[in-house]
């Protein structure tokens, strides 16, 4: 039973205030020894808790999924999940695993409910794993997503061929390694917020994405914000919040 259902029961007179208060006090999280599962996160932030798969055993993830399902979280996103763990989890739960993005989804993806379209653009094909983490996260959270891959500054005509789609975007996630110039270029073309994601793609002087990070932080285009290296999830989460502001 979620918080709204509890309050509806109180309104109808089918639950006492004292019982409802106890339920709300005890509901915020459940301690399962190695994790404390937060059930009030959607109420506070608009988005249910997401499982970060890296560093967790598949047995721990299975137990977390069970706890979420037992508490009526029926759609679950798992990020940074390796293929071996996904294979073991599939024996218990019917997850859909996206190998390139290292993302698994249990349950249904929300229907798009945001203001408009989120565009996920990459400088090159090598940036696609991070881009897919962003795109799938944004879709899971209820957004219409358009992917524009391999439209980097080495061939600007490839990006400009999509100028109409870019002009109509509510948010653009610009994902690039090397020198990370894509975010600045897009920032100078659109009136939507641009969320830049540096990737750890590039030769030695790229320093594992640090060069792209610093370039994006120093963008001369206004309206560009930056998340951490390879953080497609974080970019999508922020884009989702922006794309749902009017609904809020």
TrEMBL record:
Organism: Peptoniphilus olsenii
Residue ranges of domain PurE in the record: 116-248
Record's protein name: NCAIR mutase (PurE)-related protein
Coiled-coil regions listed: none
Pfam families documented for this protein: AIRC
């Amino acid at each position: 039973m979620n918080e709204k259902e509890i309050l509806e029961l109180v309104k109808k007179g089918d639950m006492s205030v004292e019982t409802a208060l106890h339920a709300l006090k005890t509901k915020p999280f459940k301690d399962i020894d190695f994790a404390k599962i937060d059930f009030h996160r959607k109420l506070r932030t608009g988005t249910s808790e997401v499982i970060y798969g890296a560093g967790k055993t598949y047995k721990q993830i299975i137990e977390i999924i069970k706890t979420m399902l037992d508490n009526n979280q029926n759609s679950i996103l798992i990020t940074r999940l390796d293929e071996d763990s996904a294979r073991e989890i599939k024996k218990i739960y019917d997850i859909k695993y996206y190998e390139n993005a290292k993302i698994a989804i249990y349950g249904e993806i929300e229907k798009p409910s945001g203001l408009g379209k989120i565009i996920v653009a990459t400088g090159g094909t090598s940036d696609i794993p991070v881009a897919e983490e962003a795109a799938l996260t944004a879709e899971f959270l209820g957004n219409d997503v358009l992917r524009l891959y391999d439209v980097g500054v080495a061939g600007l005509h490839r990006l400009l061929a999509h100028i109409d789609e870019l002009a109509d975007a509510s948010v653009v996630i610009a994902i690039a390694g090397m020198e990370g110039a894509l975010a600045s270029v897009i920032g100078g073309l659109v009136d939507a917020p641009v969320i830049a994601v540096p990737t750890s793609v590039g030769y030695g002087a790229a320093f594992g994405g640090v060069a792209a990070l610093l370039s994006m932080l120093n963008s001369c285009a206004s309206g560009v914000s930056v998340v951490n290296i390879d953080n497609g999830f974080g970019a999508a989460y922020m884009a989702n919040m922006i794309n749902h502001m009017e609904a809020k």
